[in-house]
Amino acid sequence: MFANGLILVGVALLPGLLVHAEAESSAATTQDRAIPAFFKLLIFAAYLPLIYFASRVFPLLMGSPSLDFLWRRGQGTEFLGIWLGLALAVGTGMEIRVARKNERDDSERIHRVLAITLGLLSILVLGTYGLGVPRDPIEFSQVATIVLFAGLAPGAILGYFTVRRNFLQIGMQRNLVYAVSAAFLALLYLALVRRLSGWFELVLPPEATAAILLFLLVFTFEPLERVIGRTLYRSFQERMDSTQKLVMELQADAQTGDLAKFISSAERRIREGFGLSVVRLSIPTPPDLVPLRAPGGLGHCVRIPLKSGDAEIGLLEACSTGAVLIGETTVAVEFLAEQIPTLVRHCQLIQEKVILEREFAERERLALVGQMAASISHNLRNPLGSMKTVLQVLLEDRALTPRVRQDCEIVVNEIDRLSNKLTQLLQYAKPGLRSGEKPHSIEIVSLTGQTVSLLRHEAARRGVELEFHSSAQKISVQGSEDAWRDAISNIVVNAIEAQPTGGHVCVAVAGSDSTASVEISDDGPGIPADLRAKIFQPFFTMKASGTGLGLAIASRRMAEMGGEIHCESPVRDGHGAKFTITVPAGDARFAVEKREASA
After folding, report:
1. How far is CA 461 from the centre of its chain?
2. Which partner for 85 in 10, 125, 141, 330 could form a disulfide, CB atoms 3.0-4.6 Å apart?
3. How many CA atoms does the CB half-sphere of 3 hold within 13 Å?
4. Residues 324-356: pLDDT tens digits?
């Protein structure tokens, strides 16, 4: 009685579960954000007959001493047949909908085959249970048995496409499909044995029929062993080939020298290659890393440390799609985890090589610029100096008319401007440290203050207020005094010249045990967002008479000292710009001496 009750509950839930599963699958496959309202109505309608079944049919069928009620004609079986047949018809319509929306997708063929299969099953079930054909009880039992076995067709189709086409993203979990299929076929054979024992009961005792059918399995062991052996070997060979192919693809990705791109590509390739739901590579492993979980909380996750020698360089996490990761898949992922540290190191070496090649190319380019600047300076400075000397001597003549004197002064100013541009060009071309010179400790508070003091006259001439502040009396870093002066003076001059009429420029120096920073802010119009990335490029300028080398020189000098310059604009009220210079410790730390409270 208890067994009959369990079977009846399963049979009663089957139509509703079929419609529900088809609706969820259709919404997910067609990328609907939620199940459409019409599908929700169909799901409700599919579960609604449970009320009638529980109140009328269930008590009627529970009186049967065996499962024969499923094969006899009557009110209960006809109700179940019509209910199931209609559910199959609804599932057919949903599969057709999915197939039409995925006409260019590889899964379109799968859904069409499932739609045809479910449609034929719907006709068969409705014809057998609902339309009263056949009338003879024996024939009805035989047809019902055919319907039962025909119901295996959708599962067989799904199994075929899952293994051959990776329809459900099973991937490396193929052996799990084989094991489940073998267990299901074994149970199905036992059910067939029981069924045939009842059919031949008039000729042979049921025990004798069962013994004969079970004994027949002995003759199938050797052929089955051969088939299973070939299948498993082929599956193992395919797995090894796919794993080796995956390693080669990861090697090609590592050749790019881009570690972030390699990690992203590796996560995608491992996920797709093994049919996993999610994969994460953490290189290095963050101390506050939250363990990876499968979407929806389903599935099994593994965490494999990535080791290079005895040192752990990262972590590989992988989660299955819902089932437990079988041993073969775990072993394959562990094999990849052993290869990844080598590939990461290879990628890093290529990245370092690319950086060195770029630096070498930049040095060659700068050397060429330096040679060109030296040649230009040599060929132009002497004539310019001679011209300026002649004009200055001429200006000492008191007999000059005011117009000629004014023109001569203009020419002298233009010669000075050309000399300044040549000086800037030489500044950019030459390195901050002379050949063979090593960086030494420099005190940046006094150096910055001296540089600001030299520029006060230029600021006053333009009506700009120039301020200097420091949070410490002394801050020492490793570098070159000339390089530091070049960087500060170029940024401050740029800030002064950015003020259209008057304005304010503030230079503030601060330091800690690990870094030193200088903030240079102004009240100018600011720098547009689309130009901020270009302002440190050589020869780029927004001024009509600028050379575009001031900020490029500052950026290069800070890079030579291991620091960087960050630009922020606007600063307040849509105006202003702030340049922040950050320099790391040249020694083990910075020597920072705080001002006394009395100061």
Report:
1. 54
2. 125
3. 5
4. 666 667 778 888 888 888 998 888 898 888 888
- As a whole number, mean pLDDT of residues 106-118 equals 76
Rounded Cα distance, 136 and 318, in Å:
57
Q: How far apart are CA 499 and CA 234, in angstroms?
A: 76
118 pLDDT above the threshold of 60: yes
Q: Under a CB-based contact definition with an 8 Å cutoff, are residues 521 and 467 in contact?
A: no
Give every CB contact of residue 131 below 8 A, 6+ residues apart in sequence: none
Does position 106 have pLDDT exceeding 70, yes or no?
no
- What SS3 state is found at 320? coil
Residue with tokens 């972030």: 260
- Residue 442 near residue 401, CB atoms below 8 Å: no
Spatial contact of 523 and 394, defined as CB atoms under 8 Å apart: no
Structure token digits, residue 78: 């006809």
* Residue position matching structure tokens 């965490």: 303
| Cα–Cα distance for residue pair 503/96, rounded to 1 Å | 73
Strand, coil or helix: what is 49?
Answer: coil
Instruction: Tell me how far CA of residue 393 lies from CA of 374, 383, 386, 418, in angstroms.
Output: 28, 15, 11, 20
Q: What are 134-155's pLDDT values in tens digits?
A: 555 555 556 656 666 666 677 6
For 512, the 3-state DSSP assignment is coil
Give CA–CA dist 255/127, Å, rounded: 64
pLDDT digits (tens, 9 = 90+) for 190-242: 777 877 777 777 777 878 888 887 777 777 777 777 777 777 677 777 777 87
Q: What is the DSSP string of 372-400?
A: HHHHHHHHHHHHHHHHHHHHHHHHT-TTS
Specify the residue for token string 């259209």.
Answer: 500
Helices (H), 201-220: 206-216
Over range 38-42, report the average pLDDT. Answer: 82
Residue 166 backbone class (left: φ over 0; alpha: ψ -120 to 50; beta: rest)? left
| Cβ atoms of residues 42 and 87 within 8 Å | no
Three-state DSSP state, 157: helix
